[in-house]
Amino acid sequence: MKQLQNYINGRFVKGTREFADINPANGSVIAQVTEADQTMVDEAVSAARRALEGEWGRLTVAARAALLNKIACGVEARFDEFLQAEVADTGKPVSLASKIDVPRGAANFRAFAELIKTAGVESFRTETPDGLTAINYTERKPLGVVGIITPWNLPLLLLTWKVAPALACGNCVVAKPSEETPATATLLAEVMESSGVPAGVFNIVHGFGPDSAGELLTTHPGVSGITFTGESRTGAAIMRAVASSVKPVSFELGGKNAAIVFADCDFADTIKGLSEAVFLNTGQVCLCAERVYVERSIFERFLAALTREAENLQLGWPTHATTTTGPLISSDHRAKVLSYYQLAGKEGATTITGGGIPEFGDGRDNGFYVQPTILTGLPESARCVKEEIFGPVCHVAPFDTEEEAIAKANDSEYGLAASVWTSNLKRGHRVASMLKVGITWVNCWFLRDLRTPFGGVGLSGVGREGGMHSLNFYSELNNICVKL
Ligand code: NAD
Ligand code: 6OH
User: Fold this and answer.
1) Model's pTM, two decimal places?
2) Is residue 286 among the annotated active site residues?
3) pLDDT tier at 260 (50, 70, 90 boundaries)?
4) pLDDT of 402-446, one tens digit each?
5) For residues 269 and 443, is the Cβ–Cβ distance under 8 A?
6) What is the DSSP string of 95-118?
7) What number is the average pLDDT over the span 123-135?
8) What is the pLDDT of residue 158?
């Protein structure tokens, strides 16, 4: 049986407690994973602290950037291994992981290598009361030891999205990947080692959240700040855990994202775009649209076309090239998604398509597949319209006016992302600017430029990452005021 170990102070470390890494496509065990205990988390944080004081702390920006580029090459050199590991752990189709997850695993390092080389600092010439001047300028210093906690839906992408800027800014990191998807983080540790990243700069501790490596890391006094992606509820628990030590946090949390489709949209492009927005990664992307509002004059045509898309999805083995849709991540998560499929009926929904579990007649029946599902007819107050389901499902509702669509889209405790579909450019800008979210896409979805701010409002997060926003989170800025 394959073993996945912690990576602490430049060494792979095995412990006494283990848990199983499960393939969600057929329920089989992929590997046994070492769960980090208190001693291991202590060692990882101490190693990171020592590394800050050592050779790593003295590296020039140019040298750090070169190292990040080397890591990117290291990921690409082992592209197929990362791909296989990610597909096995998550059940996502190989077509998706090869297009998004693994390429972004390398691109995140390149983007922040580039950015840190060119990032400037603020400076102001200040007039003083005595008629003289002073110069204020800021100096960028590492935050210190950054604790990174990531989820299972885009494991390598989301881990590297945080590791790359943290290292670019000169920090050391201790990362805890999701217990559901430990494999690519372990591979990344191998790439760090072969790229010559000094011992202690990058550490991986495996395990769960509460009473395990996640909680041990967030509450550790040696950790300077926490960056977390995952559920809003977990974000709240982490916030409570770090409150007494007043650590900076950056949270990328859940969403209940709206899409607004106007009658003047490019119909074919919109159907294609929304089919992705609803069903990509089996609906397990924080940015997925779970609420779709469609102008009444095209409502029936839209519903029929999106239903065709849902029914044409190829639920298959993740490793097959033609598969578009894999299983959900786990048996527990499937139970949660199915409970919403059932709740929808009780809340008065019409299930247009899906609503259950597909049957394959092979090993996939032991996996965690669900049918892509389209609901309609729910009141806006229904739990299925309010709560994040995180599966291949959306509720489609008609609207009559722009104001009504905006009001419905904004009627959410979440505020991560939205999309607007219209050929009217003025309306696109106008509506986008009215939406209370961190990211709005117009006539597209999940189109990323890594320099842009990424994050959410309300229950969807605290702070922004991306571009300079990441550099600012992963740095302490020291303002120096010099009287001339
Ligand atoms: P989760 O919150 O259950 O787990 C995320 C990570 O937190 C895991 O590594 C887990 O072990 C750890 N964890 C859990 N409890 C903890 C605790 N008390 N202390 C410390 N660590 C703890 O999330 P998930 O189910 O893995 O991921 C799905 C969720 O993530 C969805 O809500 C989705 O919307 C959200 N998400 C948000 C973004 C974003 O950028 N906004 C991106 C991806 C996923
Ligand atoms: C959430 O599931 C997706 C998050 C995506 C990013 O953080 C990104 O950088 O693209």
Assistant:
1) 0.97
2) yes
3) very high
4) 999 999 999 999 999 999 999 999 999 999 999 999 999 999 999
5) yes
6) HHIIIIIHHHHHHHHHHHHHHHHH
7) 96
8) 98
* DSSP secondary structure of 13-42: E--S-EEEEE-TTT--EEEEEEPP-HHHHH
Residues 292-305 have a mean pLDDT of: 98
In DSSP terms, 124 is beta-bridged to 136
User: 252, 276, 388, 465: which one is catalytic?
Assistant: 252
Report the mean per-residue pLDDT for the chain.
98
For range 294-314, the mean pLDDT: 98
Mean pLDDT of 172-179: 98
Task: Give the Cα separation of 374 and 390 in Å (integer).
Answer: 13
Per the annotation, the verdict on 276 as an active-site residue is no
Output the CA 229–ligand 1 centroid distance in Å.
5
The tokens for 303 are: 């519903």
The token pair at 124 is 């102001």
What pLDDT is attached to residue 72? 98
Alpha carbon distances (Å) from 298 to 285, 341, 406? 27, 25, 18
Q: Give the pLDDT confidence score for residue 449 in this predicted structure.
A: 98
- β-bridge partners, 141: 476
Instruction: Kindly report the backbone phi and psi dihedral angles of residue 350, in degrees, each rounded to the nearest multiple of 5, phi listed first.
Output: -95, 125
Query: Are 67 and 118 a contacting pair, CB within 8 Å?
Result: no
DSSP calls for 229-294: ES-HHHHHHHHHHHHTTT--EEEE----EEEEE-TTS-HHHHHHHHHHHHHGGGG-STT-EEEEEE
Dist. CA 282 → ligand 2 center (Å): 15
Of the candidates 169, 172, 265, 286, the residue annotated as catalytic is: 286
Mutating to test ligand 2, I would choose from 234, 287, 450, 470 the residue with most ligand atoms within 8 A of its C-beta, which is: 287
Question: What are the pocket residues of ligand 2 if the criterion is a CB atom closer than 6 Å to any ligand atom?
Answer: 153-154, 158, 161, 285-287, 448, 454
Strands 393-399 and 414-415: unpaired
Closest atom, ligand 2, to C-alpha of 154: 2
**Ligand 1 centroid, distance to 153 Cα (angstroms):** 9
